[in-house]
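=== RUN LOG ===
request id: a7f3
mode: sequence -> structure
chains: 1
length: 107
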Amino acid sequence: MAAKWRQRFIEPRLEGLSDEPRPGRPPTIRDGQVEQVVIDILESTPKDAAHRSRTSMAKRSGLSPSRVGRIWKAFRLRPHRAETFKLSKNPPSPFILPRASAGHRWL
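=== RESULT ===
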């Protein structure tokens, strides 16, 4: 392996050390699209929701929801997770029972 890199350096010097094109399908998404998805998720929130979903972000960016999810995963973005505790704006429901204490069991 080292002999291969040494030979690459001897012939064209530093230009020879650049990586050769890799096999496979070329990327179909541009860096600008990835950057726009990251900026949108970090700097904007939707009017009708607390955070953006993959589906809403996909509609906004023109990419597929799975592609948006892969971008979020690559940058470790989790828009559904709040950094701080938020109180609900909904009124309390009369149908929700209070939680049992540690020593008490509901019958």
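=== NOTES ===
The chain has a mean pLDDT of 76.
The two ends are 71 Å apart (CA to CA).
=== END ===
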